[in-house]
Amino acid sequence: MASAELQGKYQKLAQEYSKLRAQNQVLKKGVVDEQANSAALKEQLKMKDQSLRKLQQEMDSLTFRNLQLAKRVELLQDELALSEPRGKKNKKSGESSSQLSQEQKSVFDEDLQKKIEENERLHIQFFEADEQHKHVEAELRSRLASLETEAAQHQAVVDGLTRKYMETIEKLQNDKARLEVKSQTLEKEAKECRLRTEECQLQLKNLYEDLSSRLEESLSIINEKVPFNDTKYSQYNALNVPVHNRRHQLKMRDITGQALAFVQDLVKGLLNFHTYTEQRIQIFPVDSAIDTISPLNQKFSQYLHENASYVRPLEEGMLHLFESITEDTVTVLETTVKLKTFSEHLTSYICFLRKILPYQLKSLEEECEASLCTSALRARNLELSQDMKKMTAVFEKLQTYIGLLALPSTEPDGLLRTNYSSVLTNVGAALHGFHDVMKDISKHYSQKATIEHELPTATQKLITTNDCILSSVVALTNGAGKIASFFSNNVDYFIASLSYGPKTASGFISPLSAECMLQYKKKAAAYMKALRKPLLESVPYEEALANRRVLLSSTESREGLAQQVQQSLEKISKLEQEKEHWMLEAQLAKIKLEKENQRTADKLKSTSNGQAVGVAQEGAALVTAAGQEDASAKAVPEAVHSTSLIGILTRTSDSEAPDVESREDLIRNHYMARIVELTSQLQLADSKSVHFYAECRALSKRLALAEKSKEALAEEMKVASQNISRLQDELTTTKRSYEDQLSMMSDHLCSMNETLSKQREEIDTLKMSSKGNSKKNKSR
């Protein structure tokens, strides 16, 4: 193996070396070509410089020639100026000379004009040649600079490749030395392993003989003693009750509780999302309070109004699944019957999503067709329509895998056990896909809401609704992320817990066998509970606790009743004193009332009806000041009504004045009834307070007893945990001692085998020596 790895590494390094050599050659060739190009460009630059110098020399010669011609023209002009006055004096004599001078002047003018044109043409040629030379020079200089930079870069690349090549060579040499050392050590280990294998083969042979003898013995015992073997067939073994794993059940219940919380968050987010979407349809693009919305949006709003009947069952199904997982059950896919109910609720919700998807897409198209819809808003709507399609597809995918997981509890051959792990992995992938889709929806909807808020027709209602939808989408995104990470963290435990079941069988064969197993488990638990017979010598612990509580409550109630009686007697004495006080007050009020009635009667005789009414009001005020309760009077021409706690008294004119004694009896009876009512209410309140006080004392004492029992149980629990740890330590020590004994026995057996082999060799040598001696004796 080491040599093969070494060869593979050498082959890879050789391939890399060949690639680097080919790249190095290409780079060298490029550098040589660039150097040749730079040399050619330098030669061209020299030639251009030479031509420029020639042109400058020609320019200098032309300028000198022009200066000469200009001086000659000036001389000619001077001569012409001198010759003109002479010609005026000698017109007659100098006609011939003037003609000659005009001819010469015309010749000079033509010659001068030609020289000027030639000079101008040479100037133009020189300027063009100079500009072209400058342009070519600048271009060649820039090209030379770029070529120099490229050459420097190529040279740096070549240096780096050579350095890397040298480093790889050093690394390969070090790897070669290390691998040689490793190969030597591996050869030594291989030799040691060969020796160990030979020893192990001898031990294996001995163990095989021992185990074969034990197997024959156990088979003979089973055939003679065991009439029926229920572990031979998987159908019968599936009915056996497995060992109860309380830790597994508690963890499954805890995991299901977490999943229930996540599903509740998702359900809440979905309800808010559908409800706020319905509100948005009612106000955008057309507000239903101002104008009628389209029939499509009306139908869409009607369907969205029914979202709770499809979303709420998801939470209920998950709650039923959580309630079905208890500490006493066996939780595997074959026994989780409530998972099928959750799968059916999810299927109904997916049908709802399929039903509203076309209306949702058409509603987004209708928003795009609105007059105020911009191109950016139209692009966001298209992205949201694609996201809604993806969301429905993700839910369909998730429902497919959950339906597959629900098959083992209803159909035996619906899903093979070998496919459980792949289905669970796909469920995790679907949840992560749902999280990604919700992130896209949140991103696109936030952009859409931002654009809509900038529209001139955006109302506060639309802004609030968009914010609510965005918050529900964010909540859905967070919930999807949490449940996806939760499932990914626990998928390994789910896959490992699928093998929880009968030990020697492949698992629960069918849901019917799983149900029978659970029934057998309940019967076994009931039988074990029935075997626990209480001891007759002593009172059971639970009954003793109940009797103690009853005794404590009875003593407390007796003390409470005694206190209540004492308090009642004290209150009765107080009430008697108050009664006497109020009797005296009533007598005083009666005397004052008689006096006032006499005064009013005298005044009524001497005054008119209106004055009588005023006197009656004054008398009522005096009665109130004497200690009676408030009275309100109304002055009416025919009758006066006074309403207070003592009843309704009606005062009329002189002819219909009420009887004084009947009125006093009415007042006295009313006060007595009122006093009795108040005393009864006070006694009832006092009795209730005493009763509550007794109950509070009893509860406080019970709480103290419960705290004491709790502390005692905690101490017992500590002692039990210490015993458990001590037993575990003893178990580990016994295991280690047994393992040490086994290793010592194996070593002893190896030593015995070695001594036996040495003894056999000695016996063989003795036999050979005895044979040689016998042959020598025979020859003698």
Automatic annotation (TrEMBL):
Keyword entries, A-Z: Coiled coil, Endosome, RNA-binding
Keyword field contains Membrane: no
GO biological process terms held by the UniProt record: regulation of intracellular mRNA localization
Glycosyltransferase listed as a keyword: no
This protein's GO CC annotations: early endosome membrane
Sequence segments annotated as region (Disordered): 84-104, 756-780
Record-linked PANTHER family: PROTEIN PHOSPHATASE 1 REGULATORY SUBUNIT 21, SMOOTH MUSCLE MYOSIN HEAVY CHAIN-RELATED
Protein name: Protein phosphatase 1 regulatory subunit 21
Organism: Physeter macrocephalus (Sperm whale)
Gene: PPP1R21
